[in-house]
Structure prediction request, 138 residues.
Amino acid sequence: MTDLELAWLAGLLEGEGCFDSHRNQPRIRLKMSDPDTIIRAATLMGAAWHPDRRSHETAARTGHRPLYVTALTGVRAIALMTLLLPHLSARRTQRVTSILTAWDMRDRPPMRPVPASDALDVRSTNLRLVLAGAKRTG
Prediction:
């Protein structure tokens, strides 16, 4: 990912994204009605994307645009959060830092080995995101 792509993704997630924990896993989530933007973000994140089923059902009845979703969880979300930190506002930086701190301090079982084909390269304590193509699910 180039610096320009990282800055673009940071700006998009700053305005439209969500940094949280889901089922005790750090998560980055983006939901919006522009499929081109979701596909680009998912590609940069190395994540899958899919139509939001409920919004598609509602859109058919109401005439609103349906939503599309992409998300990244676990250690892959941590790796991306770490890369995004210098580009985020003070409020988002505080939120991401609290998620990373909570993850680091929690008592968790050993993680299963990460296959070489996965989108993470783990070297000592540094995580580096390696881009993978976007995969459409659903």
Notes: The chain has a mean pLDDT of 79. The first strand starts at residue 17 and ends at 22. The first helix runs from residue 3 to 16.
